[in-house]
Amino acid sequence: MSDSPYIDLLKKVLIDYHRMEMGETPPIKKNKGHKPRYWLLYALERILKNSDFTIREKVPFNRKKRELGLDWPAYADSMIGLKRMDNIEFCVNDTIKNNIPGDLIETGVWRGGSVIFMRALLKVAGVTDKNVWAADSFEGLPKPNAEKYAADKDDDHYTLHDILAISEETVRYNFEKYGLLDDQVKFLKGWFKDTFPTAPFEKLSVVRLDGDMYESTINGFDYLYPKLSVGGYLIVDDYGAVPGCKQAVHDYRQQHNITEEIIDIDGSGVYWKKLR
Ligand SMILES: C[S@@+](CC[C@H](N)C(=O)[O-])C[C@H]1O[C@@H](n2cnc3c(N)ncnc32)[C@H](O)[C@@H]1O
Hints:
Bound molecules: S-adenosylmethionine
Order of helices and strands: HEHEHHEHEHHEHEHEHEE
Number of domains: 2
CATH architecture of the largest domain: 3-Layer(aba) Sandwich
CATH topology of the largest domain: Rossmann fold
CATH superfamily of the largest domain: Vaccinia Virus protein VP39
Number of helices: 10
């Protein structure tokens, strides 16, 4: 529970925790032991599997899943769930309290909910010298580059652009509808591998990596972790959910001798405070 009733309410609204709408499961996977309820739809999907068309089962809203960010919400502005929202609140407020220099960034924003929440936290704290950065292709995930990143070989997130590709215009609109679009909100549009090397910020205080794949995660570490201030926070959304993401975390930590303890948030997300 936050000290601010506005912040407490906002995070619930951003994940549609208050609305008993239909949740949405990830798409039916090909022959992975999944027993679909609607065989005709499943058969249709198999026929159309090379097209952009994907059939999903709608499931009733499940409060526990929404707390843990385990469903893909049909309408919410963020899919990360309540506990990972609480974690953003903790990390942002701690860096403000301790005067840690640098902007805040989320890499992989989807409908924008997490970074909208970061902007709200700065506003409530009266912080005017930090920006929040929304980094995304705004067209979904890239096709795997399996030659360079073997861990992404079978990754099929790029086929889900009907769900995962949200335009910059929509994200701007989502900021606006909460009254939070202003010049402290910056957009970094394009593939991470292209935008991160020349990103126009020097210091970061909170880095939230939410790009799912090995490539998207390691790009974040390679280009952004060196800019993260000591005392700042590194958050990885998909550590417990996507094996390639977890591997990227361990590869980078090993190569750079990072020994800070990895702290679990909710079984999927993890974070640590940069100590040196
Ligand atoms: C799971 S969604 C992010 C969820 C979001 N953080 C939230 O609060 O709901 C992943 C996002 O990462 C973006 N993405 C993943 N890899 C990327 C890459 N290499 N370059 C640019 N965008 C990428 C996708 O476009 C998508 O918007």
